[in-house]
Amino acid sequence: MKAPAALPPGRGVVGALVNVVTGRRAKFLVVACWLALLILAVPVAGKLADVEHNEAQSWLPVSAESTKVLKAQAAFRSPNLLPAVVVYHRASGLDPGDRAKIAADTARFAHLAHVVGPVAPAQYAADGTVAAVVIPFELGTEGWQRAGAAVAGVRAVAGDRAGLTANVTGAAGYAADASHVFAGIDGTLLYSTLAIVVFILLLTYRSPLLWLLPVLSAGVALMSSEAVIYLLARHAGLTVNAQSAGILTVLVFGAGTDYALLLVARYREELRVRSDRHGAMRAALHRAGPAIVASASTVILGLLCLLLAETNSTKGLGPVAAIGIGVGLVSMLSLLPALLVIAGRWIFWPAVPHFASPEPTAAGAWARIGKRIARHPRRIWVLTALGLALLALGLLGFSASGLTNRQAYLGHPAAVQGEALLAAHLPASGGSPMIVISKAAAAGEVRTVLVRDPGLEGVSRPLEKGSVAYFQATLRVRPDSTAARAIVERVRAKLHAIPRAGALVGGESAINLDVQQAAAHDRNLVIPVVLAVVFVVLAILLRALLAPVLLIGTVVLSFFVALGVSALAYRHLFGFAGADTGLPLYVFVFLVALGIDYNIFLMSRVREEALRQGTRAGAVSALAATGGVITSAGLVLAGTFAVLATLPLTTFVEIGFAVAFGVLLDTIVVRSVLVTALNLDLGDTMWWPVGLRRSAVEALGGRARGEGGEPGEPTSGRARAS
Asked: Binning pLDDT at 50, 70 and 90, where does residue 579 land?
């Protein structure tokens, strides 16, 4: 029997770390260090929700006009003002008793906690079926957390009279409903993600014990990353919101488990050709480690590209998610190997990989698939690419122009019901006015423009403080509608044309417009940068230029297909009326940065095998060796992102479905069929312009013949099956 392939001697920092993790005594020190870190991290991680910023400004572009208005209006009204609009409704018409109750409620609203200023009398619809009362709440910088209690007080006063309903909408109403939705989101995501990961690992390993170690390592990584993020948010100004905190859970468990699957698979291979489990883990880290590090580095760098975004929420997501991936990588390359070596071979029971036992992947399903693709590789990749391109046609007519308040929720919370009544009966209820800030010297001209605009009414007299004037105006249409954004654009154009007025237009409608424009800017800037970063990482890892171009092309094609199919599903399966403005960028970053992982896993193994037997034979061997584990990894990542689709928020459902579908498409079709067929068709041309160096082939061949060996390894044993 041939000896196992020898490893290069461990040198430098990487070699030292590998020796520590796999040391006979040092492995216990590694586990002890992680345990001590966990003890310190858990209480800190539990405070993460305390530093979340979910107010409007934390989601807005820093340089947007509406953001500047939020800052400037602080001199005239509190930036933390959250109006609640109580909408009374009786289908048959409000009777005298209803009107008396509404008047009495209005007087009582003025005495609720955190109400500032007078509460104006109710506005009545022309048809007499609806009345609206606007309550100005000042909830401080923690308005998101306090909105629920404030709105609960309103509902306690308003109650319901027989046949008369009272729904609370407006900024405070939506904040209360949103905080209710997000109240248990962390626990929901965590336990749902855990269930998905455990289920898939049980199917993959068919072991009642092995799944525990990756899950424990991922859990430790999540707690540690949350602690790091809390400290950075508290002391370094990192922006964290409920969205990024939720995605963090999914990313750490999804990506972390992927890295664990690859490492465990390689460790299991090495256990079949090495009698010592410490040497087997050392070999697994040497051979799988570079691909895992390259994959995680690609994801981290891709996520950090989000720092170039204008939108605060998008910019904050980048470092938050990158920290989670980084900590997950460290955990999976230190804690998990130490736990596996401590546990020994029995952790794989009942399918224990005994020394010199046959490698099942050599004749498995993926080996057979690879051989079939090898018969007609060009025909297969051309037909596969054409089929995927047809699916991408679902993008025709798709536009991520944003969601209205009603469209943002899957259910029908009180705020949505109240706004629907306002839209039908009192569209200009005054709950979300347009706000204009200008120079006091030009106040007359500014007010003239506002009064003459057909989309506005109820323009206030200017409030002046020093050299600044403040206006409010009520829109004649719903503030979250496309028509409202058009009014903002028109008013801005007219006001900006007034010399030396320095006019700025803000308010809910202006915020929606600025977010939409910033999302388009972010897409156009971040996507090319992410592609450039991924190309550089692949070129360095594969030492080629053609292979990175082709791999990026396959992942981009996968992105377009995922978005095209998702667009069809949004319209015809889910019945969504639109898509969130940030959806394309989020899906792109997650699919390209995470999707390229699988190509890195596959192509790094193809290169290893190609140095031994040529690219075409190496492509079949690599698919046989990695097909099962990469598919399992894709199922884990898709399953964890699919958890987002269980939340009652349209944005999360859209992101979860698109990423889950895209990951499955990438692992099952793009990576296994398209990339393998390209490898088989192009052969050694795939490594242009460097090519596969003959010296590397000869060196590896010499080691395979037993001319070198790793100290402490057996000199005989079954040859590597892969």
From this structure: confident
Q: Which CATH number does 1-64+184-358 carry?
A: 1.20.1640.10
Number of H helices, E strands in the chain: 23, 9
Cβ(69)–Cβ(506) below 8 Å: yes
Residue spans of the domains in the chain: they are 1-64+184-358, 80-181, 359-396+519-698, 433-506
Architecture per CATH, domain 359-396+519-698, reads as Up-down Bundle (1.20)
Q: Are the C-beta atoms of residues 617 and 605 closer than 8 Å to each other? A: no
Q: Which has the closest alpha carbon to 143: 186, 185, 119, 178?
A: 178
For the domain with range 433-506, which CATH number is right: 3.20.20.70, 2.60.40.720, 3.30.70.120, 3.40.50.620?
3.30.70.120
What Å distances lie between residue 314 and 61, 232, 304, 500, 512, CA to CA?
9, 17, 10, 34, 15
Tokens 């099942």 belong to: 360
Please give the Cα distance from 81 to 471 (Å, whole number): 16
592 HSE (CA, 13 A, CB side): 30
Give Cβ neighbours of residue 72 (< 8 Å, ≥ 6 apart): 437, 468, 504
Q: Is the dihedral of CA 92, 97, 98, 103 positive or negative?
A: positive
Query: What letter does residue 506 receive in the DSSP assignment?
Result: E
| pTM tops 0.90 | no
- Give dist(CA 215, CA 192) in Å, integer: 13
With CA atoms as reference, report the closest residue to 638 among 675, 678, 597, 601. 597
Q: For 197-242, what is each residue's pLDDT tens digit?
A: 888 888 888 888 899 999 999 999 999 999 999 999 888 888 887 7
Beta strands 434-439 and 468-475, pairing class = antiparallel
CB 689 within 8 A of CB 544: yes
Q: What are the helix (H) ranges across 403-496?
A: 414-425, 443-452, 482-496
The per-residue pLDDT for range 383-400, each reduced to its tens digit, is 999 999 999 998 887 888
Kindly indicate the confidence band of residue 185, based on its pLDDT and cuts at 50, 70 and 90. low
Q: How far is 203 from 285, CA to CA, in rounded Å? A: 24
pLDDT (average), residues 471-497: 90
Which pLDDT does position 363 carry in this prediction?
Answer: 62
| % of the chain surpassing 70 pLDDT | 89
203/212 Cα distance (integer angstroms): 13
Cα gap 6→242, rounded to integer Å: 49
Q: pLDDT class for 382, splitting at 50, 70, 90? A: very high
Residue 353 has pLDDT above 80, yes or no: yes
Q: Which of 601, 606, 626 is nearest to 616 (CA)?
A: 606
Could you tell me if 599 and 607 are in contact, meaning their C-beta atoms sit under 8 angstroms apart? no
CATH number of 80-181: 3.30.70
Helix (H, G, I), strand (E, B) or coil at 462: coil
